[in-house]
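Collaborator request, handled under Task 6.
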Amino acid sequence: MSQDTSVLHDSAPLDLRLSDAELEATRDHIVSFIRGVVEDAGADGAVIGLSGGIDSTATAAIAVEALGADAVHGLVMPSEVNTDENMSDAERVAEMLGIEYDVVDINPIADAVFEAYPDATEDRMATGNVRVRLRGVLNYFVANHEEKLVLGTGNRSEALTGYFTKYGDQAVDCNPIGNLYKQQVRQLAAALGMPSDLVMKTPSAEMWLGQTDEEEMGLDYDTLDAILALHVDGPLSKAATVRELDVEPTQVDRVVDLYERSAHKRQMPPAPEPRF
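Structure tokens returned to the collaborator:
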């Protein structure tokens, strides 16, 4: 097992880190995946939205390894609900990796949407999703212009719980880290040489001021990962998962509820079955 304990919280109920050999193989596999997707599309590189969080940081770093810094374009897209610290971290990542990046303030665009339909402006979730979807529009605007693909930054933990905006941050061409639990994303980022303060940073989609992923989901990522791995992805029953992880039954129920309620996000939009 990899000896990098800096990516594992002391309170983690399950160690999901990959062995050194597994981590190296995973890294190589993702690099090959990115190259293959870009080459198959006949694209000139990739566009990535940079948030300053660990997922976009890891994705950008491995994209540079796969394609070279000159073929990766980062977009930093702040709004009024984003902290200066996170936007500074996003720019720091771009500069550290040596990639071209642009800072695009989405406030004027979001304000135009809110002015077009003011009835919904007090709805925190609706306005937060507007900002996320606008970033997706900008990603594709730049990608289309430069004949590049949009790389998503979603991980497996988010995908299984629906912790993403439909047609927003998952409006992408592919998800290079989409098969990794959050704990494994931290491990990969550390292996890619990312700074420890970014590796262990508190995750936030920053859909509104003060928002954090873990507070909104109702449990921390290490617990979420463990329940997903053993109960949702794995074979253990609810009771066995509770005993194995020493978690509360309500925590398992919460994860299962998130998984079931977000099923529509992991599927193509439904259409009626053909009658003839």
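The cover message to the collaborator said: "The longest helix spans residues 124-146. The mean pLDDT is 92. Please let us know whether this matches your experimental observations."
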